[in-house]
Design a protein that fits this description.
The protein is of the alpha+beta class. Helices cover 47% and strands 19% of the residues. The model is unreliable at 1-12 (pLDDT under 50).
Length: 273
């Protein structure tokens, strides 16, 4: 039961697949009414219409539409050429943001013609009794499906400009433990001109890229010295220093304490509580 509980905790996060299916060509219609989930539809063949927010959208094969939670909708097939479609239902905190990047919002819940291969990407896991690992894979495939929509329909007008400083910080947070990491490597990963990144970084943090890397390493070392039973040698190695003596000098310069003094100070504080 523990693993199942952990899995449900995982699924309550940013994006989770719920259900899906295939509707063959027929005169099925739905609404007007509201749903409490997101439902993305891809029209395989035929035609139909979607009514929402006092607007009517005419749709045909290759196009897509999405139902948003708590938005009243009414959708129905063309009586002379009824649509066939596939769909997926999902939920999560990331859903609205991802759909907005695609350009699908409650006022405009449609996407234009898409490549045929999108249809196969909708077949995730339609078994209500799917096991945990199958549902996890379905979540991953849902994200892959939305990535295709982002590739084909990215709304450049709403996309935020690239935050190069955040990208550099993220790269440092993921790779600070490598003793071989260099500023040149960080610049290459962010993929902009070196002097431009330096200027942006200085404006945002007041530090150089190398200064931020050194500060981040010391910060992580402080956390490990406070909360772990690792030796100073292991702490040094864990934050990117192969030389324990060099680490001790850098740590004292940054904190006014040697690693041993810092560790004993905080262990004493914990014991007094």
């Amino acid at each position: 039961m523990k693993s199942l509980h952990s899995y449900h905790s995982y699924r309550s996060g940013g994006l989770a697949y719920l259900f899906g299916g295939h509707k063959p060509s027929n005169l099925h219609k739905w609404g007007p009414g509201v749903r409490d989930v997101y439902a993305l539809h891809y029209i395989v063949s035929g035609k139909g219409k979607l009514e929402t927010r006092s607007k009517t959208f005419s749709l045909q094969a290759g196009e897509s539409f999405v139902i948003f939670p708590d938005e009243e909708v009414y959708y129905y097939p063309d009586p002379h050429d009824p649509w066939e479609y596939v769909w997926v239902e999902f939920t999560g905190e990331e859903a609205a943001q991802l759909l907005s990047l695609i350009g699908m919002v409650p006022d405009k819940p449609i996407a234009a013609q898409a490549p045929d291969h999108l249809q196969s990407s909708f077949y995730l896991s339609w078994n209500a009794e799917a096991r945990s690992f199958e549902k996890m894979r379905a979540d991953a495939k849902l994200r892959l499906l939305l990535s295709y929509y982002l590739e084909y329909f990215a709304d450049e007008t709403t996309a935020a400009p690239t935050d190069y400083v955040s990208l550099a910080k993220k790269y440092i947070a993921q790779h600070f433990w490598k003793s071989t990491i260099t500023v040149a490597e960080i610049v290459h990963a962010v993929n902009i001109e070196r002097s431009y990144l330096f200027r942006l970084f200085k404006e945002a943090t007041g530090m150089s890229v190398s200064g931020y890397l050194a500060s981040y390493r010391i910060q992580r070392a402080c956390e490990l010295l406070r909360s772990s039973n690792l030796s100073i040698k292991s702490v040094a190695y864990s934050v990117g220093y192969k030389d324990q003596l060099y680490f001790s000098k850098a740590f004292k310069k940054a904190t006014s304490y040697t690693p041993s003094e810092y560790m004993m100070l905080h262990r004493s504080s914990e014991q007094e509580r």
